[in-house]
Fold:
Amino acid sequence: MIVDGFILAADIGGSKIRLGLFDEDLNILKLSIFQTPREPSPEKIPMSIIENAKKMVGELVNRIKIFSIASMGPLDYKRGIIAKTPTVGAKNIPLIKRLREWLDVDYYLLNDCNAAAYAEWWLARTEGVKSLAYITISSGIGGGAVVDNQLLIGKDGNAAEVGHIVVDPSGYMECGCGGLGHWEAYCSAVNIVKYAAKLVGDGVIDEDNELAKLANLKKLTSEEVYRLYGLGDRGAAALLERVATFNAAGISSVITCYDPEVLVLGGAVVLNNYRYFQGRVFPLIENYLGVGMPKITTPRHGELSPLIGAVLVAKNRIDDLIVKTT
Structure:
């Protein structure tokens, strides 16, 4: 499909927002990356996007014909709203309404992991791949899927919010969305720290180790968890043994639901600790799996997969994702 003008695209994640300006041939002309506002006000994210977009596009704003956005969810995409942001705390963000007050063009809105799945499938389809699933484990956990060459969207745009799969029916941890026992509540970068602190506080992990000391001082980070694991810390080993099981259960659930030929695993937690996933998580997947194992790989577009996917759905005119009302 031909787009007569530039496409502005955004990838709204739990920790960073990426803005890209693309020409008609999908060449990236400008790129801006900045921190996602971590405030509960529903106005902060759209205002931050407008402020940074103005700086980035300058006088090229008049050549923009489409603004396509891949966002963390859950969404109410038909109304142009981010319904919840479990990792940020804001709710009912009037995203498209605010952006349209600045730039009155056509808008597309979809889940960031659906966008990433579409971008990765768009490359893989040239190799005959018809079904692909995408999972990111980062500040949160999300997913997207293309099945039989069709991007799955769902009634509100949340067809593959896989981070909210229940992996622990006991409900030991509460997710940021309010649900109990969700995969994201145990294994995301934000929540693995909370899970560690709770295990230490409840005496499940003893206090004679570096992980427990940092948890008690409230200085533990997800990066430190995996670093300590690599150093043989007993607390980190006890924690990541549990986390490996939850990750394997979550991944196997995604495979069973979508039966993909290819599973793409992305996000900082996976990509920065891939040897751990290969050695401790992947071997456990078949313990829970109900269908055949797909090829498991990492994103070819790297961290830009959601941004590229947002541009592609606009370029290919997936009209179900056009926001018609705000």
Notes: DSSP finds eleven helices and 13 strands in the chain.
